[in-house]
Amino acid sequence: MHMLNPLEISDAEQLARRIRAQIIALSCRAKTPHLASALSCVDLLTTAYWNVIDPDPIREMRPDRDRFIFSKGHAAPALYVSLAFRGIIPEALLEHYCEPGSPLSEQPTPHAVAGLEAATGSLGHGLPMGVGMALGAKIQGLPTHVFVLMSDGECNEGSVWEAAMLAPAQNLSNLMVMVDFNKWQATGRSREVLALDPLKAKFEAFGWQAFEVDGHDIGTLTQLMRDFRSGKFDRPVALIAHTVKGKGVSFMEDDNNWHYRIPKPEELERALQELGVSL
């Protein structure tokens, strides 16, 4: 599997704005919630799919493909738009998002299209599945690397920490978890619900190579993900990615009302203007 030439930072940032614009349009048209959760993780997806992961094996569903498990399934439009813009699935499928019979349902259905590796409507299962996939690849001698993107709220789940203890015990240096640490969950501040901090130290104590990064800094994210993909680290890697819920749109940023709110057409237009994108 070859390494990709990374996008220039300015090109990647423009792409991320296009992805955010399309996500907001989907939410407006299909009247689906969890918009702000989708916007916070766009730069992580952009970095992974354009600068690190080879899309061809995913499109062809080859056994040795890298796996990207989108564990925060409620934010699925971020994944759908990324897969479509990357050419892994037909872009026309976005027009039927959440329609009856569409493979792009509100929560991911495993293998409904290429790139949907798991059902992740129930939170806290992405990392355990990622551990299993990484261990399976290791046993079979495959070059597969496994990326798991999960929310900070998911760290409430005991299954996350069971998996976090198992991965270093199995020396899964082919596993990376990215925590989209946007500081909110459905009903409140993540740090007020449970004592999440210090997340980096928690993963380190369990035996992970852990980094604390700006989750919107595509340059730094690219370097760390490429280092992981090239085998630089001898243990599983955790990226604690500090992000902003609703990133990119001023009236949505850090406002948890947009966990459930659905944009009105005039709010969609205002968001598109801020993003500088026409659809």
Automatic annotation (TrEMBL):
Ranges for domain Transketolase N-terminal: 14-276
Protein origin, superkingdom: Bacteria
InterPro entries with a match to the protein in the record: THDP-binding, Transketolase_N
Identification of the protein by name: Transketolase
Organism per entry: bacterium (Candidatus Blackallbacteria) CG17_big_fil_post_rev_8_21_14_2_50_48_46
